[in-house]
Amino acid sequence: MYKASRRISNTKRGPSLAGRIAATFDRLRADRQTGLVTYVTAGDPDLSSSADILRALDRAGADVLEVGIPFSEPLADGPVIQRATERALAAGTTASAVLDLVAQVRAEIKAPIVLFTYANPVLRMGIDAFADRARQAGVDGVLVLDLPIEEAQAVRDSLAARDIDMIFLLSPTTTEPRIRQAALLGSGFLYGISRLGVTGTRDKVADGAEALARRIRAATSMPLAMGFGIASPDHVRQIGQWADAAVVGSGLVGVIAEAGKAPDLVERVESYVRWLKNGRPSQT
Questions:
Q1: Which of 32, 150, 230, 250 has a Cα-to-Cα distance from 270 of 20 to 30 A?
Q2: CB 220 within 8 Å of CB 180
Q3: Which of 47-56, 91-100, 188-197 has the lowest mean pLDDT?
Q4: H-helix or E-strand containing 37?
Q5: Angle, CA of 47, 48 and 52, to the nearest 5°
Q6: What is the pLDDT of residue 195?
Q7: Total Cβ atoms within 10 A of residue 93
Q8: Model pLDDT for residues 90-103, shown as the tens digit of each residue
Q9: How many CB atoms lie within 10 A of CB 23?
């Protein structure tokens, strides 16, 4: 198992003051808009469809595209994303194939692309090899879900040396010292999860979302995106009272699952994201 540095340093701060992610959140703040971060599992229903889906998300106005690398033990994910992961793995999707997918679509997409992964695929490829491939593909940020901040130094430094933001996850149980560590070590934005447990859509935004956002705001001015349970334009607007962007995952993955390989898959995805972003579906 990978042994990380015990001490968190602030060397090689990387692209926190530059790049697509910073420019996106600067724009959102200047325009007083709530951003929308969209999560999809790469390879669901297949890699070719994923390429079309990413293009559709960008057309629909998603501000950041979060692309999940399927992993065989997605312990933090709820049933909707777990099933998407199973479908992607069954279709032969690998971490290397996801990086190839990003490289394929990068020139066509304006929005920043963030890879969402567990630590195992990164460590199996090798930290520097993964960072090299991510840089070559045009990845803007990486979020390693199960990598504790105390063990993140080597991954963060390798990404930062290649101008890739490392994004950290914060929850209602995250302490103030760890929030400050995440702000010091991370760049791009912080990702706050509004409730404990696994991912999944909910009828309403979690009661603890505002309290978590206020705690994070008290520690840092870094942009904040919040998710877990976002499923309607009302949820996006509510999150916008406290954070810079709302993250939709299970709701969008559910649309993809329902459509499968139907001819109107891409149209459904684009319509759903336009509805979340603007309160109205696509007219196309």
A1: 32
A2: yes
A3: 188-197
A4: strand 35-41
A5: 110
A6: 55
A7: 23
A8: 999 999 999 999 99
A9: 12
Of 116-125, 167-176, 187-196, 213-222, where does mean pLDDT reach its minimum? 187-196
Under 8 Å between Cβ of 192 and 212? yes
Please tell me whether residue 104 adopts helix, strand or coil conformation.
Answer: helix
Q: How far apart are the first and last CA of the chain?
A: 50
Question: What's the CA gap between 245 and 222, in Å, rounded?
Answer: 12
Strand, helix or coil for residue 270: helix
Residue 114: predicted pLDDT: 98
Active site residues: 66, 77
Model confidence band, residue 249 (pLDDT cutoffs 50, 70, 90): very high
Distance CA 79, CA 88 (A): 14
- Mean pLDDT of all residues belonging to the chain: 88
CA angle 187, 190, 192 (to 5 degrees): 170
Banded model confidence at residue 201, pLDDT cuts 50, 70, 90: very low
> What are the structural domains of the chain?
35-274 (3.20.20.70)
Q: Token digits for 75?
A: 């312990």
Residue length, the chain? 284
Would you put residue 138 in left (φ > 0), alpha (ψ -120 to 50) or beta? left
Res. 202: pLDDT tops 70:
no
Token representation of residue 120 = 């195992």
Query: Could you say which DSSP state residue 18 is in?
Result: S
The overall pTM is greater than 0.85: yes
CA distance 114 to 24: 13
